[in-house]
């Protein structure tokens, strides 16, 4: 769905007290007597889309001017997504834009219910509206817009080579960045390689094993406390089994005492099953204690104080601790660092070979891009020739028979995303004049007609959904005025068109005719913009033709104009 402006409400702007414009999706004209405020309609639309705020335009006696626009956009479409990205809302495909300018010159803007910088409206306007008026910035005067519009005009013929160029350009850009990184950061990368190489050599020299640090820590503990460990094991063994060197003096060891307890219970176990169970458990305890005593004896026998081994363990731990402080939390971490460092070092040591490969690819891509850019230029030159001829023909019908529009293509030294071509629209006002940029080669009134001719030729190729023209018919009349109306109607087949005009020949082609009414005291009445029905259009066109709304001759001419426009659709 094509976005369009559905309604515009203007308050306190110029001579307008309050006016509401209900716009059709097609061709809309705004007419009215001199001083009624027609141009303020264009000014209001300009404000709505980020135009410069001039406090002198505020209606005398009003503290501010406000403009509110209701736009129909595709829910979830590009414009709606832009609005939602900044926190605004699009409800049921309806977008509200507001702008207020105070008498002190302060300006505020709202987009989708959210306060935004005025620049946001300007940014959004690029995808919504093109305003062509004598004092307005012309969208198609922007160089980037001109080349992009020419590409769309070139059509399918440009699609295939542009796609191939774009793919090659992206790879060329990536290869260029990689080469730049490899060459400009050579010193940093060499330093990184040296650091990694030193670390790997240090780790290789020590040759740590997974879990070795924990094992050494345990061994050092045992060796450092060998005497205490052996003494404890011997004491515990004696307590369990007794010391065979001691004189008999009664059972003091655990085994002897358990034996006495077991003997006492065994003597009477047959008299009570419960006590028999206790006797069995005492026997099991004796076996368990004997096993523990045996283990203690073996342990005490194995423990030896070995100062030489202790020194070796401590030295090894010290070396490992140095690695762990630098490269990991433990020996396993050190080994993991070494694995990663080896991989990274392999990459860094392959830089020279990689640079050679990338340099060869860069040269090949540069040659390919040069070839593809030349092909794009050839297609654009042909499109520019066709476009210039088409616009020039349109200008002849728009009462500018001696004017000629050309597209001048220049070459950038660098490759761009769409090639090396730079396009500029130029116009020669007469055969002896040199082609000049549009804003220098045409007067204000002529420029609007030039823009109309360009937009008609670009129709369908340039995706702006709404066009606004002011003074497009300045200085023309008769047959040329009819041709302007016919071309505006043709443009309205693919876009919404809003035109402020004083020519009945133009107004007759409109789908929606709005008139700005002026009150007797010279001000505009409330809701001073009225949509006309057929009878109202006849009266207004008669006024515009003859100055008299009820002139029979004027009404007949008005009906003729409306019939001509209807037949031309």
Automatic annotation (TrEMBL):
Role this protein plays: May be involved in recombinational repair of damaged DNA.
Record flagged with keyword DNA repair: yes
Family: Belongs to the RecN family.
RecF/RecN/SMC N-terminal domain boundaries: 6-518
Record has Nucleotide-binding as a keyword: yes
Coiled-coil stretches noted in the UniProt entry, renumbered to this chain: 348-382
InterPro entries in the cross-refs: DNA_recomb/repair_RecN, P-loop_NTPase, RecF/RecN/SMC_N
Encoding gene (name): recN
UniProt entry keywords in alphabetical sequence: ATP-binding, Coiled coil, DNA damage, DNA repair, Nucleotide-binding
Organism of provenance: Nonomuraea longispora
Protein name, UniProt field: DNA repair protein RecN
Any one GO cellular component localisation term in the record: bacterial nucleoid
GO terms for biological process, alphabetical: DNA recombination; DNA repair; SOS response
GO MF term set: ATP binding
């Amino acid at each position: 769905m094509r976005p369009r402006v559905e309604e515009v409400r203007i308050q306190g702007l110029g001579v307008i007290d309050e006016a509401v414009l209900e716009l059709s999706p097609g061709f809309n004209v705004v007419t009215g007597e001199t001083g009624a405020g027609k141009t303020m309609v264009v000014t209001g639309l300009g404000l709505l889309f980020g135009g410069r705020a001039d406090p002198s335009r505020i209606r005398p006696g009003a503290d501010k001017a406000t403009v509110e626009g209701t736009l129909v956009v595709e829910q979830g479409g590009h414009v709606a997504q832009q609005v939602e990205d900044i926190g605004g809302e699009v409800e049921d495909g309806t977008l509200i834009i507001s702008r207020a300018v105070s008498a002190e010159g302060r300006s505020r803007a709202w987009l989708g219910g959210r306060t935004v910088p005025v620049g946001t409206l300007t940014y959004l306007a690029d995808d919504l509206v093109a305003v062509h008026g004598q004092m307005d910035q012309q969208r198609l005067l922007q160089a980037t817009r001109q080349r992009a519009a020419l590409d769309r005009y070139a059509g399918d013929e440009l699609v295939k080579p542009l796609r191939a160029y774009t793919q090659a350009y992206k790879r060329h850009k990536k290869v260029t960045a990689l080469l730049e990184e490899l060459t400009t950061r050579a010193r940093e990368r060499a330093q990184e390689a040296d650091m990694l190489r030193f670390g790997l050599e240090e780790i290789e020299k020590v040759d740590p094993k997974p879990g070795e640090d924990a094992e050494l820590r345990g061994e050092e503990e045992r060796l450092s406390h060998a005497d205490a460990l052996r003494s404890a094991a011997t004491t515990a063994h004696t307590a369990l089994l007794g010391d065979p060197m001691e004189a008999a003096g009664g059972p003091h060891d655990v085994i002897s005492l358990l034996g006495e307890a077991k003997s006492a219970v065994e003597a009477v176990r047959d008299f009570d099953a419960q006590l028999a169970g206790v006797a069995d458990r005492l026997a099991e305890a004796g076996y368990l204690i004997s096993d523990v005593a045996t283990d203690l004896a073996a342990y005490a026998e194995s423990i030896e104080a070995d100062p030489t081994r202790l020194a070796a363990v401590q030295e090894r731990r010290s070396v490992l601790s140095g690695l762990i402080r630098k490269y990991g939390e433990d020996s396993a971490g050190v080994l993991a660092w070494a694995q990663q460092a080896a991989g990274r070092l392999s990459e860094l040591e392959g830089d020279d070979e990689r640079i050679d490969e990338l340099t060869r690819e860069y040269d090949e891509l540069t040659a390919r891009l040069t070839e593809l850019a030349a092909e794009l230029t050839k297609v654009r030159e042909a499109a520019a020739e066709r476009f210039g001829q088409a616009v020039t023909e349109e200008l002849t019908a728009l009462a500018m028979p001696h004017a000629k529009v050309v597209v001048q293509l220049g070459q950038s030294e660098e490759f761009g995303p769409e090639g090396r071509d730079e396009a500029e629209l130029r116009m020669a006002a007469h055969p002896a004049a040199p082609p000049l940029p549009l804003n220098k080669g045409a007067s204000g009134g002529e420029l609007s007609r030039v823009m109309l001719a360009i937009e008609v030729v670009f129709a369908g190729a340039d995706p702006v959904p709404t066009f606004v023209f002011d003074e497009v018919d300045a200085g023309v009349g008769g047959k040329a005025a009819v041709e302007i109306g016919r071309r505006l109607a043709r443009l309205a087949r693919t876009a919404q068109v809003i035109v402020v005009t004083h020519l009945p020949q133009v107004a007759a082609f409109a789908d929606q005719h709005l008139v700005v009414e002026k009150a007797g005291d010279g001000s505009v009445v409330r809701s001073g913009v009225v949509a006309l029905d057929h009878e109202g259009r006849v009266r207004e066109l008669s006024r515009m033709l003859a100055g008299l709304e009820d002139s029979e001759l004027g009404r007949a001419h008005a009906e003729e104009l409306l019939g001509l426009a209807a037949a031309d659709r």
